[in-house]
């Protein structure tokens, strides 16, 4: 299957899985959901699905979990400035299981070791920041190990790229939020899960295309 066809199939399948993302988004909200959020989730799920389609086979299952659990987690963060444990816990467990399964099939433990290192590094960076400054929120800290596992399995280069890119995208996201008057510098609250997810998907996709 050529690259263009894989992207097209991934886009369609991601859009199909968006129904699960929307459902999980709705059931984890504390406030009444709004239709524009549902539309944005469907669009995001389709885009992530298209990106995941070009990833190595060993990461496809983890990518599907990002579509179903990561996208709604980021959406809840945008709406309510929190990342639900009911989404981050199964995401972490699911990605760990997929990576362990892939390692058993290939007989290689190198990527599994790197995945563990990635979880510790990204999770540790945010945990230290949270303990000393109170930022980011605990939900972001719990999301980081899942994303760190995925990028860590690709190597240090892509793990560090993803972490660095998440802060760049967060700055951009914050600027757009200020322009849209969605939040202010006074309250200092901005969702970090969307840039973290976007940076992870972008880094993993670039790694796959450059490999």
Describe the main β-sheet briefly: none
Order of helices and strands: HHHHHHHH
Structural class label? mainly alpha
**H/I helix tally:** 8
Q: Give the N-terminus to C-terminus distance in angstroms.
A: 17 Å
Unreliable segments (pLDDT under 50, ≥5 consecutive)?
A: none
How much helical structure, as a percent, in the residues? over 70%
Taking Cα atoms only, what radius of gyration do you get, to the nearest Å?
16 Å
Q: What shape does the CA trace take? A: globular
| Mean of all residue-level pLDDT scores | 88
Record field, number of beta strands: 0
DSSP strand (E) fraction? under 5%
Task: Note down, in words, how this protein is organized.
The mean pLDDT is 88. The protein has helices at residues 3-28, 35-52, 57-80, 85-106, 110-133, 138-152, 156-179, 193-210. The protein contains 8 helices and no strands. The protein is mostly helical and 211 residues long. α1 runs antiparallel to α2 (35-52), α3 (57-80) runs antiparallel to α4 and α4 runs antiparallel to α5 (110-133). The chain starts with a helix and ends with a helix.
Provide tags for this entry.
211 residues; mainly alpha; 8 helices; 81% helix; globular
Q: TL;DR of this structure?
A:
It is built from 8 helices and no strands. It is mainly α and 211 residues long.
Blueprint of the fold:
Layout (H helix, E strand, L loop, with lengths): L2 H26 L6 H18 L4 H24 L4 H22 L3 H24 L4 H15 L3 H24 L13 H18 L1
């Amino acid at each position: 299957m050529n690259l263009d066809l894989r992207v097209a199939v991934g886009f369609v399948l991601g859009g199909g899985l968006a129904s699960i993302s929307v459902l999980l988004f709705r059931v984890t909200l504390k406030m009444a959901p709004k239709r524009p959020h549902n539309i944005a989730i469907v669009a995001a799920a389709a885009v992530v699905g298209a990106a995941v389609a070009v990833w190595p086979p060993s990461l496809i299952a983890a990518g599907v979990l990002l579509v179903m659990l990561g996208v709604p987690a980021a959406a809840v963060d945008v709406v309510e400035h929190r990342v639900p444990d009911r989404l981050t816990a199964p995401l972490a467990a699911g990605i760990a299981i997929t990576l362990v399964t892939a390692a058993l099939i290939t007989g290689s433990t190198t990527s599994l070791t790197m995945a563990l290192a990635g979880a510790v590094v990204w999770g540790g960076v945010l945990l230290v920041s949270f303990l000393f400054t109170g930022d980011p929120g605990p939900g972001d800290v719990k999301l980081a190990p899942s994303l760190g596992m995925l990028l860590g399995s690709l190597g240090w280069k892509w793990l560090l790229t993803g972490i660095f890119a998440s802060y760049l995208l967060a700055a951009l996201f914050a600027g757009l939020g200020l322009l849209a008057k969605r939040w202010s510098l006074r309250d200092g609250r901005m969702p970090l899960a969307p840039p973290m997810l976007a940076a992870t998907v972008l880094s993993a996709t670039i790694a796959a295309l450059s490999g």
